[in-house]
Amino acid sequence: MAQQGTAAGTRAGAGHAPVPRAKVLSRELSVFYGEKQALFDIALDINANQVTSLIGPSGCGKSTFLRCINRMNDVIDTCRVTGSIRLDGHEVYDPMVDVVSLRRRVGMVFQKPNPFPKSIFENVAYGPKIHGLTKGRGELEELVVSSLVRAGLFEEVKDRLQEPGTSLSGGQQQRLCIARAIAVGPEVILMDEPCSALDPIATARIEELIDELRQTYTIVVVTHSMQQAARISQRTAFFHLGVLVEAGDTSKIFTNPEDGRTQDYITGRFG
Amino acid sequence: MNSGDSAAHAGGAPAEESKILRRRHRADRRFRLYGLSAVAIALLALVGLLGGIGWNGISAFHHHQLLLDVELDRAVLGLPAAPDVDESALRTANYTAAIRERLRELHPEVSGRKQKRSLYALVSSIAGFELQRLVLADPGLLETSVSLALPLSDEAGRYLKGDISRDSEESRRKLKDDQLDWLDAWAAQGLIERRFHTRFFTGGDSREPEVAGLGGALLGSLWTLLVTLALSFPIGVAAAVHLEEFAPRGRVTDFLEVNINNLAAVPSIVYGLLGLAVFLNFMALPRSAPVVGGLVLALMTMPTIIIAARAALRAVPPSIREAALGVGASPPQVVAHHVLPLALPGILTGTIIGMARALGETAPLLMIGMVAFIADPPTGPLAPSTVLPVQIYLWAESPERAFQELTFGAILVLVGFLLLMNAIAIVLRNRSEQSW
Question: CATH number, domain at B394?
Answer without folding.
Answer: 1.10.3720.10
